[in-house]
Amino acid sequence: MLLTKLSISEKLAIKEYYDSYGYVIIENLLSQSKIEEFLISYEIVKHSSSFVFFSQDTHLPSRPRLTPEGFIENSMLNPASLKLWKQFSQSVEECLVDEGITTALSILSGVSKHVMMQNMFFDKSTGTIEHQDHYYLDSDPPGRMIAVWYALEDIHKDAGCFFVLPGSHKGKVVQRKSASNFSDHDAFVKEIAHLINEGKYEYRSFPLKKGDVLFWHPYTIHGAYNNRDPRFSRKSLTAHYYPANLNPLYAGTIPTVRKTSNSNISILGSERECYVSNVMHYVRYIANYIRGRGPDYDMRRNSYE
């Protein structure tokens, strides 16, 4: 099936497609030079024996564990906040706040300024379960958050492609029972599976080209397939943004934000909070190693099959 890709100049078409299907692809949006700068800094941290990050798929602090092909197995949560590794975190941030992203976000939201809630990096596809982002994070009021996926290389169809279920944003939204934790996560996964069967939604996968960027609605059901050929990586960034005049859902207090090189995008968390969080990754990594503690819950498809 041919993918519909739009140019950033097609503003009306971008908004109409997003509203109709719950996602839209804008081709060649991310600066190629910024991608190259990121890849250079990533190669440095990937081979560092002292690099520790928080894994998005297992929700545990981790060290890089490479496949025989040289790809990191676990995804990274908030790599732009790893301030102890300044060159790497800055290269992530520069991709996430690219001017093209600002333009696209404004087309979709109708406002010029946004706050980035979180960001992620994937080297090898972790095979993510079907889910709606609203369960984990959203804007307040809900439904205004915009999620973004950046292809940092040409994505092969066997690399564990990202997918969405078009039109699923118009169906039922599964609510989290507790604002403070994910104690009902297994029930959430089952409810999403029920919605998919009930709605008979189509799966649409995205072997995108380097620099292509995908935007989707917080109610849109999506995920990623398992890697089917270990020779292929799926280098990509993901981030979630909400209009700066709103607040994040589930937040008990108004959060602090920090500036970026793009005056129209700020990021949740102060500089100090980033350094403290980065240090705590090391503390928790050591503590978990001693206790032999595993994940409280994870997002990997293999864990639910």
| Poorly predicted ranges | none
CATH topology call: Jelly Rolls
Full CATH superfamily name: q2cbj1_9rhob like domain
The number of distinct structural domains comes to 1
The helical percent reads 25-40%
Q: What is the number of helices?
A: 6
Radius of gyration: 18 Å
How far is the N terminus from the C terminus?
Answer: 27 Å
Verbal overview:
The chain is α+β, with helices and mostly antiparallel strands and 305 residues long. The chain has one domain: Jelly Rolls (Sandwich). 28% of the residues lie in helices and 19% in strands. It is built from six helices and 15 strands. Strands 1, 4, 5, 7, 10, 12, 14 and 15 form an eight-stranded mixed β-sheet that branches. A three-stranded antiparallel β-sheet has the order 9-8-11, with no helix packed on it. A two-stranded antiparallel sheet has the order 2-3. β2 and β3 form a beta hairpin.
Summary, kept brief:
The protein is built from 6 helices and 15 strands. The chain is of the alpha+beta class.
Offer a few descriptive terms.
305 residues, alpha+beta, Jelly Rolls, 8-stranded mixed sheet, 3-stranded antiparallel sheet, 15 strands, globular
Topology, please?
Blueprint: H1 11-21, E1 23-26, H2 32-46, E2 53-55, E3 60-62, E4 76-77, H3 86-96, H4 99-109, E5 114-122, E6 139-140, E7 146-151, E8 162-164, H5 185-199, E9 204-205, E10 213-216, E11 222-224, E12 236-243, E13 247-248, E14 257-258, E15 265-268, H6 271-291
Parallel strand pairs: 5-15
Antiparallel strand pairs: 1-10, 2-3, 4-5, 5-12, 6-13, 7-10, 7-12, 8-9, 8-11, 14-15
Helix pairs in contact: 2-3
